[in-house]
Amino acid sequence: MHVTPLGAARDSRPGPVVGLLLTLGGMVLLVQAWIRLWRSCRGRLALVRVTALLWSAPLMLAPPLFSRDAWSYAAQGTLAALGISPYRHGPALLAGTVKQAVDPLWRHTPAPYGPLPLWWGDLLAHHLASPLLLVYGHRLLAVAGILLLGLSAPRLAELGGVDPARTSALLLASPAVVVNGVAGLHNDILMVGLMAAALALTPRLPHGWMLGAALAGLAAAVKVSGGMVAVGVILLSLPIGAGLLVRTRRTVGVGALAGVVLLATGVVTGLGHGWVSALSVPFMVTTFSPTAMLGMPGRVIGTLLPPVLGAIVLLKVPTGRADRALLAVGVLYLAAVAALPAVRLWYLLWPLPFLAAVRLSPQAEVAVVGGAVVMGAISPMSTLPFGIVTWTGAAVVGVLVLGFRAGVGPWRQPRRTVLL
Questions:
Q1: What does the pLDDT look like over 128-178, one tens digit per residue?
Q2: Which of 388, 392, 365 shows the shortest CA–CA distance to 377?
Q3: CB 31 within 8 A of CB 176
Q4: What pLDDT score was predicted for residue 281?
Q5: What predicted TM-score, i.e. pTM, was given to this entire model?
């Protein structure tokens, strides 16, 4: 049997360790280059977009990195193409590479995703036989999410009263998006793009709330958490000083339209609404989270907290202030992620478009920028025990904060912008 040098290195004991160290070295270079870009890009939107394209292009051609979720997408689409409901059966029913590439944790579980990405996977599987080509086909959904973010970022920045270039730098070129969105190939990036587009377009048209509600429904058709962006659609579409009755009417209208779009997506694609019964699948493997440490009471809190906070936001946040609406949605998504009994790194993409588009205190800005760095920097260790990843992430955050306060390391103000 012919063994390539890379294959031999992979199968040897030191091979994976050396590979991890090289990858982490590359992450250090990416982090340093991005922070220098972010600190020097004010007013230079074209530079940010070109840089994001140059950094992302090689990763678009590479297989998925740091996660095997894309192989699950390919297998679930194959099930749908064979007439087997991916909401009732897992990839274990399949044979060959498309099954073997799926993480063993998820081979026997149904799909927890909405009908939109599964319909795309079904369409791909009808025309492509290679599992690798199926995965590359799913990367087109990630690219669509990035494009939506790129088009929405300047408008969100305008609504929030901040520089469009810096908002775009966080949403297009940050390690969080480049590593988890482009390289990691998660459905979340498409959901986040639809969420951003919903809030970017809502204030632009006389009845923009209808378009925003429809996009919120489509975001929920990717992952149900995308539907919470309807809270922002409601706030952005209300006049200044809207009272309880006006808020209630608009909430009913937006919620009804988003729900109709979500249900219609399941009907039109023929996949139905079986995802509802599979929503708990991602939480079968518990990771570090505040609510997970509380056991069953924590799960109850995690289930009730997002809708309760959403109701409070709808009742209390002043209308007529776009920046307040964006901040409220960002905080709502951040709280929702914290309430989940299992948190993955890419879940922290959910609040990013809204927190990146508002003026924050220096401390909050450090937290958002540091979080975007950590999300990318520790992704190569996502397959290690979660405790190791948690402590490593905490150490990285500590170093970043100290470096920022001292003005050293990658936080130094650059003399020129570096493109890698």
A1: 888 889 989 999 999 999 999 999 999 999 999 999 999 999 999 999 899
A2: 392
A3: no
A4: 67
A5: 0.86
What is the C-alpha separation between 222 and 206, in angstroms, rounded? 27
What is the 3-state secondary structure of the chain? Answer: CCCCHHHHHHHCCHHHHHHHHHHHHHHHHHHHHHHHHHHHCCCCHHHHHHHHHHHHHHHHHCCCCCCCHHHHHHHHHHHHHCCCCCCCCCHHHCCCHHHHCCCHHHCCCCCCCCHHHHHHHHHHHCCCCCHHHHHHHHHHHHHHHHHHHHHHHHHHHHHHCCCHHHHHHHHHHCHHHHHHHHHCCCCHHHHHHHHHHHHHHHHHCCCHHHHHHHHHHHHHCCCHHHHHHHHHHHHHHCCCCCCHHHHHHHHHHHHHHHHHHHHHHHHHHCCCCHHHHHCCHHHCCCCCCCCHHHCHHHHHHHHHHHHHHHHHHHHHCCCCCHHHHHHHHHHHHHHHHHHCCCCCHHHHHCCHHHHCCCCCCHHHHHHHHHHHHHHHHCHHHCCCCHHHHHHHHHHHHHHHHHHHHHCCHHHCCCCCCCCC
Residue linked to tokens 């990405």: 117
What's the pLDDT at 214? 96
pLDDT at residue 246 is higher than 80: yes
CB 131 within 8 A of CB 98: yes
Residue ranges of the domains in the chain? 37-274+281-411
- The mean pLDDT of 37-48, rounded to a whole number, is 90
| pLDDT of amino acid 220 | 95
Residue 219's contacts (CB-CB under 8 Å, 6 or more residues apart) are 191, 194, 195, 198, 226, 227, 229
Residue 400, pLDDT score? 52
